[in-house]
Amino acid sequence: MSENNESKSWQDKASEWLISIIVAVGLALFIRTFLVEPYMVSGPSMRPTLQNAERLIVNRLVYRIREPQRGEIIVFKYPSDPRRDFIKRVIAVGGDTIEIKDGKTFVNGDQLNETYIKEPFHTNYPKVTVPKGFIFVMGDNRNNSEDSRYADVGFVDLSLVKGKAAIVFWPFNAFKVLP
Domain 36-177 falls in which CATH fold? Predict the structure, then answer.
């Protein structure tokens, strides 16, 4: 005798629904933990590239395969308070030398062509070498960015990096894939 859907008890149907919900929640947690995570930009530090309240998809998988590279926009845990997330651009990686003179950024002695910065800035930063296992990050709005130039951020340990900003998906008219 075959059992059809109408002859199932309410307990069997509830059990099937519960299993389906548990599998869906487990799959969502797996995706968010290991693959992608939504993120909302908060503040002006990445203007003009990213605007306040834009929503992004952060690729969490890429840095399990390789380390961040110069020029990439990353989300990381704020070193002074790991409960907070920050978003900045990677300027230098472990082993690189970084120096800022009169608002011009030099990595390994070469001046960066920073077409993405909002406006000129006139900061100086002494020549230092980024330690292995760390990165040096700055916002694109250099005059309004709390970044590696300041002691409370400093060099960012790679263990604090959550992922690479990949896609702006909200608002829809600002949709773009980030380099």
Answer: Umud Fragment, subunit A (2.10.109)
